Amino acid sequence: MSANLQTMQPPGDPHVPETAFGKWFLRTETWTVHVLERALQDLERLMPATAAAGRRSFEVVADVGCGYGRSLPKLHQRFAPTRLIGMDIEPEMLEASSKEVAAAGINAEFICCSSSNIALPDNSVDLLFCHQTFHHLIDQEKAIEEFFRVLKPGGVLLFAESTRRYIHSWIIRLLFAHPMDVQKTAPEYLALVRAAGFSVPDSAVSYPFLWWSREDLGLLETALRIKPKAVREETLINLVAVKP
């Protein structure tokens, strides 16, 4: 296993550190099964709606904000990359990610850098995975520009994100830490990705309303059988974007 770790950002690079609860949650089966795997399944479903239709392998696959690395074996299994890269701003998480891929018996490399200053050359990535990372970023506009820069022409961005409605909810404020003034609605995130130059057809966008993405964690529906409103402010957006 390749566990080469590069460091780019200085220790003072501005970001909001994860809470102790957040670090614990990222290592749970609830995160792996109900958050990460559900997002990947939905993004795979959306891929045929884009110029990525028919592609089942990508030479260089990178996860920006890989956390504790639960995504990396899943990306390897789905997309068969010859080069798999995990990126995160927290060295602690990258060290844990290296153990995750070692246990899975796959090769990966790790880069410690900010998402707004990615330590990769222009046009060097075939598929970029950004899952539940963007709402942690302070400079979101610079980060989406970096995503566009590092992707090759025809490269694919898999973007799965919680929206302002969810991040501003009382339970998330209680348990996690985020830069609150940069959070966006689902339409604002879609507009941001398109404004960066990505092609995102409407058919490559979905708005899941999962139990964990609700302010009541789905208790009104599961316990009291009260259905959610048909018209609501969305709490999640998943999309597949392509760099022309």
Q: Report mean pLDDT, rounded to a whole number.
A: 90
Question: What is the rounded distance between the termini?
Answer: 33 Å
As laid out across the biggest beta sheet, the strand order is 1-4-3-2-5-6-8-7
In angstroms, what is the radius of gyration? 17 Å
Count of DSSP H/I helices: 9
Shape: globular
Counted beta strands? 8
Low-confidence parts lasting 5 or more residues at pLDDT below 50? 8-12
Percent of residues in beta strands: 15-25%
| Helical amount | 25-40%
Description:
β2 (60-64), α3 (71-79) and β3 (83-88) form a beta-alpha-beta unit. The chain starts with a strand and ends with a strand. It has 244 residues and is α/β, with parallel strands linked by helices. The protein is built from nine helices and eight strands. The protein is globular, with a radius of gyration of 17 Å.
Fold blueprint:
Elements: E1 5-7, H1 20-25, H2 29-46, E2 60-64, H3 71-79, E3 83-88, H4 91-104, E4 109-112, E5 125-131, H5 140-150, E6 151-162, H6 164-167, H7 170-175, H8 186-195, E7 205-206, H9 219-224, E8 236-242
Parallel strand pairs: 1-4, 2-3, 2-5, 3-4, 5-6
Antiparallel strand pairs: 6-8, 7-8
